[in-house]
# Entry
Amino acid sequence: MSATRLRIGYIPLVDAAALLVAADHGFSAAEGLDIDLVREVSWSNVRDKLNIGLFDAAHMLSPLTIASSLGIGHVRVPIITPFNFALNGNAITVSASLFAELAALADGDLADPKVSARALARVVAIRKEQGGEPLAFGMTFPFSNHNYQLRFWMAAGGIDPDEDVRLVVLPPPYMVESLAGGHVDGFCVGAPWNSVAVESGVGHILHFGCEIMQRASEKVLAVREGWANENPAVLAALIRALARAAAFIEDVEAHPRVAATVARRLEVDPSLVLRTLSGSLKLAPDGTTRANNRYIMIGREAASRPDPVQADWIYAQIVRWGQAPLTDELQAAARHAFRSDLFDAALGQQPPRPSEPSDGIGAFVGPAFVADDIAGHLAAWRNFRGGKPRLSIVR
Amino acid sequence: MECVQRRRNSGPRARDAAVALEAMVLAVTRKGSEPPGLGTPPPSGQRDSTLKIAIVDESPIRAAILEDGLREAGFTQVERIAETHNLLARVYAIDPDVILIDLESPSRDMLEQMFQMSRVVKRPVAMFVDQSDSAAIRAAVDAGVSAYIVDGLKKERITSILDLCISRFNAFSRLQSELDRAKDALEERKVIDRAKGVLMKAKGLSEEQAYALLRKTAMNENKKIIDIAQSLLTAAELFK
# Structure
């Protein structure tokens, strides 16, 4: 029997590792699948090509999957995910000069996001007082954790992300040069771009994404719901191939081979990928490092299993920042996009997520997340703005 | 009339677009402060030439081809944006009704932010190509053209721009492949000339005799002259 050919789009990032390794290390072939990987340049392209059927599946931002299912930002196409490519993996990087300003104004250890957020609020206030340009931060897409993590962090320090700073969408490959050119003062992006900024001497990594939220669904395998319904056996085979690849990636012995494969697809130095997988990152050109085993989680601690609480959390962020109203219907639609049932059907009942963090998210500040009471949860935030869509003022 | 004529001409070309190498996104925004759906639609007699069009393309040749085509079709307000830094600021400065962007440009995601913000900055942007039109979207993207189209703009006005983009894109692809073919032909000639030189020197032949020998060998072996010439040069290199 000939292999089933699948066309799958991806953006060159380390969190696509399970997909790249499944295709390049024979995990997909073992399931009778022939994966045709298509490298893409923008999330808009990935979404559109998946939506209209040019792709069978795609590596996609988790919040974009939800947004597409809710019909916000674009045409509504029900997209589901039966497999989570990665939890976490982002980092917030700032320019050397902003880092120096933050260090001078910090009232404690800058490694604590509460301290750094307060310091950032002071920088913002001083700029405003002196009539200077507001700080600008790059992120990758309106519906992305990069956007939400920056906002969550800034808001914790008392900053209004819509009024006090500028948040601009930048394609990941442009982040480092934008920081070097002074077009932005910092950014939140996935691996390996933070390390690239540090390596080229223009950036200081301030926080790992997992310091803002301990567990955040970053990228998922996205498929059209209709396609999933019509191709259950193929989808199950794909889930199994990806799950095996994800487990392989977590084997420390395999890291050099995984890094070589991923680096080849990303066209970066394998050492940068290794650093990401090990969770030990160089923070600054002076060689300071920080290690956190939650930096990126691919095939462990139930990272691969789509967790409905992640869908609820993402929807709560969408509502918090005014991208969609809060309704039971929309929340149900968001939750419906994360299909742990398909994951379990393909792999057998899988262990649940770890008991820590207890709410499944583990944000660094604020009350524990209660999925069934998003309204109550959001009421705790001063910056909650219901239903008023806004992102950033560019003019 | 010219527009109608052009569309008729571009019909078969538009079908060729299925094999277009390059792709473009058509983004259309409508200026005005009223929310979508509440404003009065523009009168159908409104001339297309009043549309302000911005082209975001890092390929200056393709951008020029597109611009020429649009101007010929009567769109007088066409601006090109080559740089990606401060793309949104440039877009706002130009304040276009229609934005054309290369589908292979990573800057596409930056434009998405503009659609997000549109309600804030009082620029209503909505999907004109609605859910029921997903077949139309697919056809367009298949052809290499995707459309963000605004509520309130007549579909037909956009279609003429889309058709024009597709035909111009094909023209560019053809130009590119003709250029590649010309380059290849030039390269082939150089290789054959060098092979002739090798034969003339090694066997004391005239140029015509050398070429005749190459041609005869190619015919006997059922190969192209260029392949024989290339093999000969490789062999000559080995014997050096």
